[in-house]
Design brief:
- By secondary structure, this protein is of the alpha+beta class.
- It folds into 3 domains: 123 residues, 2-Layer Sandwich (Methyltransferase, Cobalt-precorrin-4 Transmethylase, Domain 2); 79 residues, no CATH class; 84 residues.
- Helices cover 35% and strands 23% of the residues.
- It has 10 helices and 16 strands.
- Strand 3 and strand 4 form a beta hairpin.
- The longest helix is centred in the middle third of the chain and has 29 residues.
- The chain is globular, with a radius of gyration of 24 Å.
């Protein structure tokens, strides 16, 4: 939290609204909430920033919030709306500060590590599908060409630097010591053979993501450097079970949820087809079994612990969409 309440001799706030700071008198829901999220995303596409609630405009006087909507809102509601309306995860937080009897709310967001964040939906005149919002000095609007060009060039430069670091690592250990981990099928190839890794070792490995490229029938792969031991025959490798140890029923039991609840979570988070969390293993000419990683279990546990109403909110959203479809 960067904001500090500093007053001049008139009792007005010294700070002005800028590319990383915006003031609001009160926190509201509905379309106003979407406007706040639009501003947060605009800040994330720039350098990050904060929205401070409880500041009267013209002149900027710290009066504190006069309603309890900021205090009572479920953070999961904000998180769900961000997931619904924008392309990828936004690192945001909310805090409350008390000064005497005055209460102030702060929504803060970090600069996004993946830019640009893109709007996925059109809502009234607030959000537009395909728009990229950017925070300028004192206002949030669709990005101008110069800023978008800069962001895209920076992203290209980041990718270039990652490739350079990756190639430098290969140069240090020699290309003969570089092996390929197929994260879709769970294979590590060393020439024409495959490598078996102990499941305990897998948790300690740090994969070099900057070397990402496509190999072996389009399956995503990562490059590993370092010593790997334990070469075994291809036909005896149970690699998918090493990397994807959980079936759906096992996760449901661990999280104390039913099959329907598990499926709506998986669908909402777009888990299927993401090799970090899921793989489909062919068991016959037409049938597959679905397996999941430990990373997914940790992700779902963290989500449900932090936002216990997540499943119920998704159910309500599905119900609302069905009602809207039936009425149209």
């Amino acid at each position: 939290m960067k904001f500090k309440l500093e007053l001049n001799h008139f009792g007005y706030i010294k700070q002005r609204e800028s590319f990383d700071l915006e003031f609001k008198e009160n926190f509201h829901l509905g379309d106003k909430l979407l406007e706040y999220l639009k501003t947060l995303v605009g800040m994330a596409n720039n350098k990050g920033g904060e929205i401070v609630f409880g500041i009267k405009d013209k002149p900027r006087i710290p009066i504190g919030m006069t309603n309890d909507k900021f205090i009572s809102i479920d953070p999961n509601k904000i998180n769900q709306k961000l997931m619904t309306h924008f392309s990828h995860e936004v690192e945001w937080d909310m805090n409350i500060i008390n000064l005497g009897e005055k209460v102030f709310g702060i929504l803060s967001v970090k600069e996004s590590s993946r830019k640009p964040i893109i709007c996925k939906t059109t809502v009234n005149k607030i959000l537009r599908e395909g728009a990229i919002y950017y925070r300028y000095r004192g206002e949030t609007k669709e990005i101008n060409y110069s800023e978008l060009s800069y962001i895209l060039e920076k992203e290209k430069e980041k990718e270039k630097l990652l490739w350079i670091k990756h190639i430098e690592r290969i140069g240090k250990v020699g290309p003969q010591n570089i092996h390929i981990l197929d994260t879709y099928n769970g294979d590590i190839e060393v020439g024409t053979q495959k490598v078996l890794l102990d499941s305990k070792l897998l948790d300690k490995l740090k994969f070099v993501k900057e070397g990402q490229f496509v190999e072996k029938d389009g399956a995503p792969t990562l490059t590993l450097t370092g010593e790997i031991a334990g070469v075994i025959d291809t036909d005896n490798l149970p690699a998918p079970d090493k990397l994807y140890p959980f079936r759906a029923t096992e996760i449901q039991k661990r999280l104390n949820i039913n099959s329907y609840e598990f499926q709506i979570l998986i669908n909402k988070l777009n888990i299927k087809g993401n090799p970090k969390y899921h793989t489909a293993i062919k068991i016959s000419s037409k049938n597959y079994t679905h397996k999941y990683t430990n990373s997914l279990v940790n992700k779902l546990e963290a989500l449900l612990n932090r936002y216990p109403d997540t499943i119920e909110n998704i159910k309500q959203e599905i119900k609302k969409n069905r009602n809207n479809k039936n009425s149209s």
